[in-house]
Design a protein that fits this description.
By secondary structure, the protein is of the alpha/beta class. The chain has one domain: NADP-dependent oxidoreductase domain (TIM Barrel). It is built from 12 helices and 10 strands. The chain has an 8-stranded parallel β-barrel with strand order 3-4-5-6-7-8-9-10. A two-stranded antiparallel ribbon has the order 1-2. Helix 3 runs parallel beside helix 4, helix 9 packs across helix 10 and helix 9 packs antiparallel against helix 12. It starts with a strand and ends in a 5-residue tail after the last helix.
């Protein structure tokens, strides 16, 4: 598998990132490690997790991070993988109130390092934002962790464009690299915002998309396969109501028709084109993909070799409305 370099870093990563949100819960430890094996064998080296993953199940904290730490150390591959994790998530019992502080970030980071059984995090994200705290205070805490060798680079997840620009302005004023990556909800599928229950999530919209094109800021796209919405339509499978609430829009029906034409002409699966679309942007975008079985994982890996012409990318982009 080829490698791409994230802008403003020396991190060279696989074009696709394995998501581990379900590790330790619906995906048990043995299956999770099997997935990591199958991802690593053809050259996948980018692993995304978060300090909060698995904490919705009573018992042990940091289940996803712990499994990754066991796998990385058990295989002796720490220098061969790029680990991305996130901290500063609101309490699950009170998601509407952000209590994130620089001190909370520092605590989460130290625990993540412990759970992952590592000395450092390659790419560390603020999982959510607290608009009541100046962006510069968060950057100050992240810079301190960077100077201590605990993180190599840092980014933001679920931050609004306004706050990202605030952080960028602070970084430029103080001679810092600042956020090198933005992790947000994005796929080929448009989003019906009224169907998203978690109002702390931030989606790619036209303004943010233009910002990434202008600045070249790296992006990581979560829910990159949109819960398999297009594939379910194509296979005439029942689509759960919660997925319909998110994605059943007139614009997505137009995108679907074009996607089917492209995939059938190229003799590849829909998901391969969907993921390749994200990889063929004017800025670096790495889709984060979770897998339910080996076949899905194989399709995700195969998407890295799907070449889309600029015309195909323009056609698909022209149909998008991003957020409705």
């Amino acid at each position: 598998m080829k490698r791409i370099r994230l802008k403003n870093t020396n991190l060279r990563v696989s074009p696709i990132c394995i998501g581990t949100v379900n590790f330790g819960t619906s995906v048990d430890s043995e299956t999770a490690k099997h997935q990591l094996d199958r991802f690593f064998e053809p050259g996948g080296n980018f692993i995304d997790t978060a300090h909060i993953y698995g904490d919705w199940v009573p018992g042990q904290r940091g289940r996803s991070e712990r499994i990754i730490g066991e796998w990385v150390n058990g295989n002796g591959v720490r220098k061969d993988v790029v680990i991305s994790t996130k901290g500063g998530h609101p309490d699950l019992s009170d998601m509407d109130i952000s209590k994130i502080t620089p001190e909370r970030i520092a605590k989460d980071l130290d625990e993540s390092i412990e759970y992952l059984k590592t000395d450092y995090i390659d790419l560390y994200f603020m999982h959510r934002d607290n608009p009541d705290v100046p962006a510069g205070e968060f950057l100050g805490a992240l810079e301190e962790a960077k100077q201590q060798g605990k993180i190599r680079y840092y980014g933001c997840s679920n931050w609004t464009l306004q706050r990202i620009i605030e952080a960028e302005t602070y970084a430029q004023k103080h001679g810092l690299t600042g956020f090198v990556c933005n992790q947000l909800m994005w796929s080929l599928v448009d989003i019906n915002s009224s169907g998203i229950e978690d109002k702390t999530l931030v989606f790619m919209d036209e303004e943010t998309y233009d910002y990434h094109k202008r600045t070249g800021m790296n992006a990581m796209a979560y829910t990159a396969a949109a819960k398999g919405y297009f594939t379910k339509l194509y296979n005439r499978k029942s689509v759960p109501d919660r997925i319909l609430a998110r994605y059943d829009t007139p614009s997505n029906r137009l995108i679907f028709d074009e996607l089917v034409r492209i995939a059938e002409k190229m003799n590849v699966s829909l998901i391969e084109v969907e993921l390749a679309y994200l990889m063929h942007q004017d800025f670096v975008c790495v889709p984060i993909v979770t897998f339910s079985n080996d076949e899905q994982l194989k399709q995700g890996i195969k998407s890295c070799d799907v070449g889309l012409s600029p015309d195909i990318v323009r056609r698909l982009t022209s149909l998008k409305r991003y957020v409705i």
